[in-house]
Amino acid sequence: MVFSSLPFIFVFIPIFFGCYYIVPKYMRNLVLLIGSLIFYFISAIHHPQHFIIFVISMIVDFEAAVYMESYPKYRKTIFVIAVLFHIISLFIFKYASFFLEEIASISGLGDLALNIVLPIGISFYTFQGISYLADVYRGKIEAEQSLLRYTVYISMFEQLIAGPIVTYPQVKKELHDRRINKQLVHKGLAIFIFGLGLKVLLANPLGKLWSQACAIGFESLSTPLAWLSIFAFSFQIYFDFFGYSLMAIGLGEMLGFHLPKNFDHPYISKTMTEFWRRWHITLGSWFREYVYIPLGGNRKGMIYTIRNLFIVWLLTGIWHGAGYHFMLWGLVLFIILLLEKYVFGSYLNKHAWLGHLYMFFLIPLTWAIFAIDDLQQLGVFFTRLFPFFGQGVWSIFRYDYLKYLQLYYPFFIAGFLFSTKLPYRLLQNIKRPMLIYTLLFVIFAASVYCLYRGLDDPFLYFRF
Hints:
Family: Belongs to the membrane-bound acyltransferase family.
Transmembrane segments: 6-23, 30-45, 79-100, 112-134, 188-206, 226-251, 309-339, 351-371, 378-397, 409-427, 434-455
InterPro entries: Ac/AlaTfrase_AlgI/DltB, AlgI, MB_O-acyltransferase, MBOAT_fam
Strand content: under 5%
Keywords: Acyltransferase, Cell membrane, Membrane, Transferase, Transmembrane, Transmembrane helix
Number of helices: 20
Number of strands: 0
GO molecular function, one term: acyltransferase activity
Helix content: over 70%
Distance between the termini: 16 Å
Oligomer: single chain
């Protein structure tokens, strides 16, 4: 089940929130847990073992944290075992098949692939579990003594599948006591509808252009169409994930939880360093808090700083999936960030126009590495983007892009506009509630119509 689906909007939301608001306050955690487990079970209906693994992982975390406090002598051992449980689970489901395929390819042993299906949300709830264990181990927080509250923290359906990644201290107070009023519900509903619109009305149509370019074959693309398609993917992945995050935050407000912001207009950045402070903020914070700083951060000199940055960005690439293109993507980002840190980053920050121009081209190029899993095809695609450096110089003179530009230019204009702060500032300055309600109704009606017509795609980050 996904947020941008008619069953979720017209069946799950009315039934769940009807129960949630009717019951006494002390029962809301129980209702939220039951609703979240039902949500996950439906999402994993074809692979019920994924639901079992999810439940086991929550119990392991809860018990490990309690035992760390009860038996301080074995604190480190318990922590290591619990974290290894998560790492091994993640490796088996996310990377084992890839490694076996590579071993088979090198050794000639034949097909060793296990065809393992990735459990939905495992990358996100694994990181939340590890962060909780690390915070208890370091004495930053006390272990939660209520299994109900802990399982609610991990399983909250609004952020379970694709984040934001929420640490326990961020919601601890609200797990014990949260207030819900009409203003919060209205605010949350408005944020949810706006996120739904970004996903259904912007991300999905632009994603069609990227899918069409892949279907045509990169070797058959003209240079303008190649650039058009990778810009389309850049907008798709942004509005897809940003839209999901807004829907999650909106649902959180309706539940009485204030989830952390996950995006801060990343496409207006002047450097890649700034971009990654604004993109998937909770993932960046997680790696900084639980990997970069424990490794020493930038406190031990340049060599150790470079080493720590390399580890973080290699892990960031691997976290997104099993594939050489993800490793390459992480390595490329590491190199870019290193150059910005020690060579030209300050210059770009001082000359905003140059920084924006630099990012205008760099953002889609890095997303191309992220999106194309076949390195040979990635090379072909880059010869279309830069025809004078390859065999595709002819591709610059073709006019196939005109048909697609005519079809998609309204979505590109909207994509550029909503990548800036302008429309959000305009919305904040509207003082007439009826105008806001009308706008939200139009967005909601248009989104529902598109969903009814089957014009929908799964969220991209579900695959990670």
